[in-house]
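Standup, Tuesday
Yesterday: got the pipeline producing structure tokens again.
Today: sanity-check two examples.
Blockers: none.

Example 1:
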Amino acid sequence: MRPRAAPRAAAALGFCSLLLLLGPGHACPAGCTCTDPHTVDCRDRGLPSVPDPFPLDVRKLLVAGNRIQHIPEDFFIFYGDLVYLDFRNNSLRSLEEGTFSGSAKLAFLDLSYNNLTQLGAGAFRSAGRLVRLSLANNNLAGVHEAAFETLESLQVLELNGNNLRSLSVAALAALPALRTLRLDGNPWLCDCDFAHLFSWIQENASKLPKGEPAGGQAGLGEGGREQGEATRSQEPLGRAPRVEPDGGGFGATALDECCSG
């Protein structure tokens, strides 16, 4: 009797067969448009899930303005050439560890205006080439200190307009290439953890420039979440870091009182 093929070998054979079947010129998903051989546009179609299949060599995928709640865990294994993913204005609730396995070329990821509440450790593992990541205007209340590990190329991180009351400095220290950081529009809690975050921003002011709306920003905003809601479509505020938790404003001079109180 011949030995049975290993499950992994069978899976690999099936995947290779699928590649041959679909080929790089496979047609667009129903209801979407392909403006060029590497771009698929499925925006504002009311889709409940990620349409499939795409051309295997798709590089730019636009699925903003739908009702998608989940990114298939094997999605990037099939579409490893993807560089640009616009996932704004959907109903995404969570990111499982391993979601981005196979996303070795992904550089731009926009997950703003979804329903994310937590970012766990290694949420973006395998997406090491990300340059820009927007998580703005979700419902994020917690970010694990290892959420951004391996993102050594990330230059722009947007966490504005969420429900963050604290953020570990370790999460940001794992981003050596970071140049633009948006934290405004969050209900920050006045405590020593916040003081550490504020100090880290001040210490890294040279690589996180502020003062020019068209440049980078390292600000905690002025006016809490309400202001963040009102300025979603505007350029980042070019002001020194400051926060007004629970309606009361304070700057660097109040950090000692914040910790001692």
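Example 2:
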Amino acid sequence: MEQTFTSGEKWRQFFVIFTPVVVSQLMLFSMALIDTMMSGHYSNEALAGTAIGNSLWGPFNASLSGLLMAVTPIISQLIGRGEGHDIKRTVSNGLYITIGLAALLITLNFLFVPSILRMMGLDPAVASIARHFLNGICFGVPAFFFYSVLRAFIDSLGLTRVTMMITLITVPVNIFLNYLLIFGNWGFPELGGVGSGYATGITYWIVLLVTIILIQSQKRLRDYHIFSGFQRFSLEKMKEIIKLGVPNGLTILFEVSIFSAVTVFMGRFGTDTIAAHQSAISVPTLLYAFPLSIAAALTILVGFETGAKRLLDAKKYRHIGMVSAIAIGVVNGVLLLLFRDQIALLFTNDPKLADLITHFLIYAVLFQFADALLSPVLGALRGYKDVTVTSIVAFISYWIIGLPLGLLLSYTTLGPFGFWIGLSAGLFIAAFILSIRVRFTEKRLA
């Protein structure tokens, strides 16, 4: 990254950072989509079980990764201030935190997931698939969290193209392993939907290994000596990461978990509706990679400019992010409307299920517009290291307003589609409140 002076230079630097990030996010997000699609071609039960498993894994995956994302603005501001010597300490302590997080998540999975699945009142076959799918995911959890910190380190340096190169391997590897483990090809056990969980877990380890090799082989990364010598625990650095990461993680948890809560409430509409809901929601989840990547790029660039005390430049980058997100949101929304029938057929050969998926996708357009307004604001606030209020706003918007509204609408003629309207309302409300907050923050720092 470097200082920019004209609008053209800023747009160019923004897209240099953003483009590889969005490719990386699409690769990572598509793993859940691929699991769902390939399981759906095995059986409806495998589709529902995999979808339920992903809906339970998603909130923890996103929120704990969000906590580790605190490494990004910390390093970006260190670079802006010319304090690159402190980067190794930040990364090392981030890696130490992942050990505790991985152990906690694996323990929670084995202690509480069976009870949660029983409470959902699922078909026993679907519940069994979901449970063992999550066991497979847990196999790769330590690798995924380690990778998350190392990716934050690489991205913070503006080397997002490197992480793009790494994540480009995820989709072909995941598809190949799904081919082996779901359908039992080439002499491998036929595990059905459970196989997709183990395929994902193995893929995480492969991605981590490739990341470590690249860090050690590229001079720009090797010069920070991330893996050379033991770095002491730093209570001060851990506090900095946790202080920034916990509110960020909670914000993501409140947003992502609301979708899992809706899946639980969908149980009363039957297995087909659950399968259609989860299949359909995986599409806007994949498209969410675009606004999320804009947010990530803004966190890097706003953090860099804030560290260098160029606050006007930081604000200009936020405006670039907002314009880009709205433009992409409109395009994605139109594409969803035009190709919803074709998209539905990617998940199932069952005409009834495909019709349900098609109807859900109509309401998914609302998510595109809401995320386009919300994500850039969140990214800028992270860059400014102002995240305390965001978790409070997220909880109120999603859980106090969005979910009750969706539940109420689900008892009208809208049925299960009412939940999607409630969720969209929560996202729009959060976007409005946090847009006010980011302007307040910029005035305070100026």
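Quick observation on example 2: The chain has 16 helices and no strands. Residues 7-445 form one domain.
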